[in-house]
Amino acid sequence: MNLTLRIWRQQSSAEEGAMVTYRVEDISPDMSFLEMLDVLNEELILAGDEPVAFDHDCREGICGACGMVINGQAHGPERTTTCQLHMRHFKDGDTVDVEPWRAAAFPVVKDLVVDRTAFDRVIQAGGYISVPTGSAPEAHATAVPKEAADFAFEHAECIGCGACVAACPNGSAMLFTSAKVNHLNVLPQGQPERETRVLDMVAAMDDQGFGGCTNTGECATACPKGIPLPSIAAMNREYLRALRKEKSRSKG
Question: What is the C-alpha separation between 125 and 122, in angstroms, rounded?
Fold first, then answer.
């Protein structure tokens, strides 16, 4: 398989970038997209050129590091992570555009690498539970209803890749934030911070420069882990509930 790649190259956040065209040949359809980029980078290094910078870590669809926009779609034409996208989904002779996440809260560091520490700051605002000191409690000491457990597990699958932000026309992080809020708020262990968690995490999300949600649904469509769109509505209900409690306490 021979491909024409148009890849965004940008030396740093302080410099302007541009699409640069490359050719790769004899690409196996069984390669992952990142393995194809590895082949390109080997050729660039042998030619004395600078390789394309891109994020990656586990290459198993778990860590969320490998985000990039491929032909205008977050992670590419399949609902998966870029590292799990295989070249069989492209055709011989295709032209493939490869760009970094495009969002104000994700500034480009270099080439396809963006700074996603805005996500870290959202989690730091409330993505935790109180843990008493001492020995660990018995695993079965706190019962969790199956419905709550299923809901929590569904949202805990979020890997923080940022595809939801990249796909959203507003650059919103509502799906990410709702996943982090909801998977803790339904568990007994998450109840002590239930109100402060949602208020603080939403405030942090706004502070980081993410756009507002207009329910276009592109976030859920792009999410490789299938975080559902109703997750946002669930967080909105939690947010309004917390606001009412806060106002009630301030009046009292």
Answer: 5
Q: Which residues pair with 70 in a beta bridge?
A: 73, 98
Element holding 19 (H helix, E strand): strand 18-24
* pLDDT tens series, the chain, 252 aa: 999 999 999 999 999 999 999 999 999 999 999 999 999 999 999 999 999 999 999 999 999 999 999 999 999 999 999 999 999 999 999 999 999 999 999 999 999 999 999 999 999 999 999 877 777 777 778 889 999 999 999 999 999 999 999 999 999 999 999 999 999 999 998 999 999 999 999 999 999 999 999 999 999 999 999 999 999 999 999 999 999 988 888 776
In sequence order, the 6+-apart residues with CB closer than 8 A to the CB of 6 are: 19, 20, 21, 22, 95, 96, 97, 98
Alpha carbon distance 181, 174 (integer Å):
10
Q: How far is CA 200 from CA 21, 126, 210, 216, in A?
A: 44, 6, 15, 24
Global model pTM greater than 0.90: yes
Cα(149)–Cα(151) distance, integer angstroms: 5
Ranges of beta strands (E only) in 53-135 are: 69-70, 73-74, 95-99, 108-110, 113-114
> Which residue shows structure tokens 């306490």?
249
Enumerate long-range contacts of 117-123, CB under 8 Å, 24 or more apart. Answer: 118/173, 118/208, 118/209, 118/210, 119/160, 119/162, 119/173, 119/176, 121/204, 121/207, 121/208, 122/173, 122/176, 122/177, 122/180, 122/201, 122/204, 122/205, 122/208, 123/160, 123/180, 123/201
